[in-house]
């Protein structure tokens, strides 16, 4: 459905565009695929384009990400402006991944306008997905931040936590960034120990998910509790506890890898308890 590419084709009438303004996605509430805007529709608005990148092909149609000028007026009756959370779970997972790719590439280009070594202006390299400094030769490629996300279990119980930044009463799995020099397994053990004070073993990889908030790659795992009582790091974790699979609190949606980890584990016991 999506085929990535960095070399734009000749201009075509069937181009699609993912549009951002002031760092927020514009969603066309009248369209079936709300975050894709057709070329004729875009030209009809006459928006001033600040930056533009070719993403690849969506259903064989050329697809671009655009940032329009912050002063442009956008019809609030047609377009909803917001971060990517407002389409999470409301559009096809592949389309959400494409919108996430678009947001990350736009942020990357915006954040690398000038060379960090010599201070000169960077240029988009049309031969590959890169920003290049002609004076000193520095090349910057899009970067992602790898993270682990883990569901810790103890038989029929799941260790779930509520981050201090979570909205409302939602509980989720544990997660954290991989630090320089660490492998994935070391990160997982360290993060669990730091956040809730327990030890884990029998690590099992589940699946990954690109998570554009802002640029994470989430690597999902299951792990079994081996020792220790829960002691929360109050700087990050407001609360944590063991929950029986049949008595879960509010959990993340199935569109997130956290939600998938929980639902996959619970399914082995009783599918009727899946929220």
Topology:
Blueprint: E1 2-4, E2 16-21, E3 24-28, E4 37-38, H1 39-45, E5 49-58, E6 61-68, E7 79-82, H2 93-111, E8 123-125, E9 130-132, E10 139-140, E11 145-154, E12 157-163, E13 174-177, H3 184-196, E14 199-211, E15 216-227, E16 237-244, H4 257-267
Parallel strand pairs: 2-6, 11-15
Antiparallel strand pairs: 1-5, 2-3, 2-4, 3-7, 5-6, 8-9, 9-10, 11-12, 11-13, 12-16, 14-15
Mind explaining what this structure looks like?
Helix content is 18%, strand content 36%. The protein has 3 domains: 2-111, Nucleoside Triphosphate Pyrophosphohydrolase (Alpha-Beta Complex); 112-142, no CATH class; 145-269, Nucleoside Triphosphate Pyrophosphohydrolase, CATH 3.90.79. With 275 residues, it is an alpha+beta fold. It has helices at 39-45, 93-111, 184-196, 257-267; strands at residues 2-4, 16-21, 24-28, 37-38, 49-58, 61-68, 79-82, 123-125, 130-132, 139-140, 145-154, 157-163, 174-177, 199-211, 216-227, 237-244. It is built from 4 helices and 16 strands. Strands 1, 2, 3, 4, 5, 6 and 7 form a 7-stranded mixed β-sheet that branches. β5 (49-58) and β6 (61-68) form a beta hairpin.
Task: Pick out the low-confidence regions.
Answer: none
Would you identify the CATH architecture of the largest domain?
Alpha-Beta Complex
Q: Report the radius of gyration as a whole number of Å.
A: 21 Å
Which class of the largest domain in CATH terms?
A: Alpha Beta
What series of H and E elements makes up the topology?
Answer: EEEEHEEEHEEEEEEHEEEH
| Helix content bin | 10-25%
Total strand segments: 16
CATH superfamily of the largest domain: Nucleoside Triphosphate Pyrophosphohydrolase
Tally of separate domains:
3
Structural class: alpha+beta
- What is the makeup of the main sheet? 7 strands, mixed
- Count of DSSP helices? 4
Q: Strand share of the residues? A: 35-45%
What distance separates the N and C termini?
A: 29 Å
Rounded mean pLDDT score: 94
Shape: globular
- Looking at the structure, the CATH topology of the largest domain is Nucleoside Triphosphate Pyrophosphohydrolase
């Amino acid at each position: 459905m999506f085929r990535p590419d960095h070399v734009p084709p000749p201009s075509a009438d069937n181009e699609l565009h993912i549009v951002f303004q002031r760092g927020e996605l514009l969603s066309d509430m009248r369209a079936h695929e709300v975050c894709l805007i057709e070329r004729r529709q875009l030209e009809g608005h006459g928006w001033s384009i600040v930056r533009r990148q070719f993403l690849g092909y969506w259903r064989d149609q050329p697809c671009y990400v655009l940032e329009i000028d912050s002063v442009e007026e956008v019809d609030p009756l047609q377009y909803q402006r917001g971060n990517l959370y407002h389409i999470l779970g409301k559009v096809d997972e592949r389309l959400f991944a494409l919108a996430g790719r678009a947001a990350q590439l736009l942020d990357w280009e915006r954040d690398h306008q000038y060379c960090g070594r010599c201070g000169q202006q960077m240029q988009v390299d049309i031969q590959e997905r890169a920003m290049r400094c002609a004076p000193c030769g520095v090349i910057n490629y899009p970067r992602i931040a790898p993270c682990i996300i883990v569901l810790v279990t103890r038989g029929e119980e799941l260790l779930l936590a509520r981050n201090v930044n979570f909205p409302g009463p939602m509980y989720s799995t544990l997660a954290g960034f991989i630090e320089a020099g660490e492998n994935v397994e070391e990160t997982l053990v360290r993060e669990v120990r730091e956040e809730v004070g327990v030890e884990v073993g029998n690590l099992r990889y589940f699946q990954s998910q690109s998570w554009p908030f802002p640029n994470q790659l989430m690597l999902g795992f299951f792990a079994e509790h081996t020792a220790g009582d829960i002691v929360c790091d109050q700087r990050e974790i407001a609360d944590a506890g063991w929950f029986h699979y049949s008595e879960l609190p509010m959990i993340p949606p199935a569109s997130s890898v956290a939600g998938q980890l929980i639902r996959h584990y619970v399914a082995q016991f009783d599918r009727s308890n899946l929220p």
